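Notes to self after the Tuesday call (sharing in case useful).
The group wants a holo model before anyone commits to mutagenesis around the pocket. I volunteered. Ligand is adenosine monophosphate. Logging inputs and output together so the record is complete.
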Amino acid sequence: MAAGLKIVLLGPPGCGKGTQAEILAEELGVPAISTGEMLRGAVNEGSELGSKVEGIMSSGALVDDETMAAVVRERLARDDAREGFLLDGYPRTLPQAETLTSILSASGDELDAVVLVDVPEEELVDRALGRGRADDSDEVVRERLRVYREKTQPLIGFYEQRGLLRSVDGYASIDDVTGRIREALG
Ligand code: AMP
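Result:
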């Protein structure tokens, strides 16, 4: 795989895309940018952003698009993201996808690929509950999946239309899924 790739990892909560983003980012020498991690960091720091998003995150809802645009715009402007990145957890709505396109095109850039990590829903519930984060009660897990279906799944068609989508069966071991993503990226 060539360095300098600008990639989005798409998939339902618990599909393993965070783990895959970390592994592939290391291989590619680009940062793995997880908006969920960034927001959890803000909550832990007790920053203004953190107090704004804490309740939203623990309910399983999405933080508003405008707040997320500011977070992502600032992160992608940092030096380490110039040569490429793996985005994990952004975009999650159609307006966020449009925002990402415009952030990148402002500097003459565009995405190279969007990788969908596909996993059956029941498997996702088990995985998410096994993860044991304080906010991962059964109800919140199901709410996250509902929000994914409603708000994020439309991105599959959005990126398919743009010829960027690569689908990978994510119902396998971590190593196998990494291999499949490598293959999908060519
Ligand atoms: P994650 O770790 O990606 O599952 O994100 C954890 C939580 O952070 C989500 O359930 C949302 O509340 C919030 N979040 C992370 N990324 C986004 C995003 N792109 N848009 C809206 N909310 C987000």
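Two things stood out.
The CA atoms of residues 35 and 71 lie 8 Å apart.
The beta strands are 6-10, 32-34, 85-88, 113-118, 165-169.
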